[in-house]
Design goal:
The chain is α+β, with helices and mostly antiparallel strands. The protein is built from seven helices and nine strands; from the N terminus they run αββββαβαββαββααα. The longest helix is centred in the last third of the chain and has 24 residues. The chain is globular and about 50 Å long. The structure holds zinc ion. The site of zinc ion has 6 residues, from loops.
């Protein structure tokens, strides 16, 4: 991998971290971000890096086995989670945060139902991975399972994770997830939120496809054509930004 590509990835991660902090999605060191660099390497934030002032030097580059190939700092303690997501779902970028509303909702439900059509960009309903200690293989495995067919998952008593084809896409998925969790929380405070049923979800997907908005994910209960592919954005899938329907 060229040093130019590595430095570009480190700079892109640093800028995204500062942006996540500025938007209140990460406070202090409470998150980690990674970005694929070529086929076999991943740039990832170092352990203990503060997001609001994160610099490219605080981004290390590892191979898919977790060995450092560029940088001086140890990668985040959630390295195994990030690498597991790359190995199983092959995204371009992964964002993990302790965003306040996503974390709060994950304290009280096992799954956030698909209460708004924009949640189809995340794969529909969002599962909550059972709690396990940070940095453990048990946590990584629980989150990987919760991400099946999804671009986002909540982590009980911990936070949230999203992935996308690009880093801006993954950041946008994190924002969308936080928005959906706030929506669900506000609705649940005054009544029982109504979820979109499978027919309604499919109609949205068909409408988005007809209008050329791309591959809004199919609900995995339907097994329509789109779900036969991995239901996450890849180079062949538009990013969330590209496929987002109008509000
Ligand atoms: Zn965490």
């Amino acid at each position: 991998m060229s040093s130019t590509a590595v430095e570009a990835a480190r700079a892109e991660i640093a800028a995204s971290c500062r942006s996540l902090a500025a938007r209140g999605l990460v406070v202090g060191t409470a998150g980690n971000v990674s970005l694929r660099v070529g086929a076999r390497q991943v740039a990832i934030t170092a352990t203990g890096a503060r997001f609001e002032e994160l610099t490219p030097e605080q981004v290390s580059v590892v191979d898919l086995e977790g060995r450092i190939v560029h940088g001086d700092l140890a990668p985040t303690s959630e390295l195994a989670l990030h690498l597991g997501i790359y190995r199983r779902y092959d995204p371009g970028a992964v964002v993990h945060t302790h965003a306040p509303l996503s974390t709060a909702v994950g304290l009280v439900v096992d799954e956030v139902p698909c209460v708004h059509y924009q949640m189809l960009l995340l794969g529909g309903s969002v599962r909550v991975a059972p709690y396990a200690t940070f940095g453990t293989p048990e946590l990584a495995e629980a989150v990987l399972a919760a991400l099946d067919g999804r671009a986002a998952a909540l982590m009980a008593n911990h936070g949230a994770v999203t992935h996308a084809a690009t880093l801006p896409g993954a950041v946008e998925q994190t924002e969308l997830l936080e928005w959906a969790c706030e929506l669900y929380w506000r609705a649940a405070a005054i009544g029982t939120p109504k979820a979109l049923d499978t027919d309604a979800q499919l109609a949205v997907i068909n409408a988005a496809t007809q209008r050329g908005y791309g591959t809004t994910r199919s609900p995995d209960t339907t097994r329509s054509a789109d779900t036969t592919r991995s239901a996450h954005p890849t180079a062949a899938h538009p990013t969330a930004a590209e496929e987002r329907p109008p509000r």
